[in-house]
Amino acid sequence: QVQLVESGGGLVQPGGSLRLSCSASGSAQSIFVMGWYRQAPGKARELVATITSGGISNYADSVKGRCTISRDNAKNAVYLQMDSLKDEDTGSYFCNVISTRGAHYWGQGTQVTVSS
After folding, report:
1. How far is CA 93 from CA 27, 54, 74, 78, 116, in A?
2. 1 pairs with which residues across the strands?
3. Handedness of CA 31, 76, 70, 13 (dihedral sign)
4. What would the pLDDT profile of 9-61 be if each residue is shown by its tens digit?
5. CA distances from 39 to 30, 32, 76 (A)
6. What CA–CA distance (Å, rounded) separates 114 from 15?
7. 84-107 pLDDT tens trace
8. Terminus of the chain with fewer CB atoms < 10 Å: N or C?
9. Which residue, 57, 8, 54, 58, is CA-closest to 31?
10. Centroid of chain to Cα 20
11. Taking Cα atoms as reference points, which of 35, 29, 6, 25 lies closest to residue 99?
12. 86, 38 Cβ separation under 8 angstroms
């Protein structure tokens, strides 16, 4: 089992920045991929960005150039730096990890609200 705790959400004006953090505990040594997903009200959960244990990252087209995912393997942590935030970035952001056995684990989510 892997437990995930997110932090860093909040209210920000359009054009602003936020940095989300997620720390993993439990069977963290089995983590392969770490990432972030988001869900806006009334919409399906969608991929934001992922990063492998080897540092290979992947981004949704909607956030490319505005978001940077990073990972600290020693701390079993993943971060999402979000810049030039837009209204449509509003939603609940969920940390996700995939173990080496293919199991998915989810955090409880942190709210990001972009509004003037």
Report:
1. 22, 23, 23, 13, 20
2. none
3. positive
4. 999 999 999 999 999 988 767 889 999 999 998 999 999 999 999 999 999 99
5. 26, 23, 24
6. 9
7. 999 999 999 999 999 988 999 999
8. C
9. 54
10. 7
11. 29
12. no
Six-digit token string for 8: 């860093």
In order of 68, 99, 114, the CA distances from 27 in angstroms are: 26, 9, 34
Rounded to whole angstroms, the Cα distance separating 49 from 97 reads: 11
Give which of 75, 63, 62 is closest to 34, Cα–Cα: 75
C-alpha distances (whole Å) from 113 to each of 8, 27, 65, 84 are 12, 32, 20, 13
- How far apart (Å, rounded) are the C-alpha atoms in residues 81 and 102? 26
Are residues 54 and 60 in contact, defined by beta-carbon separation less than 8 angstroms? Answer: no
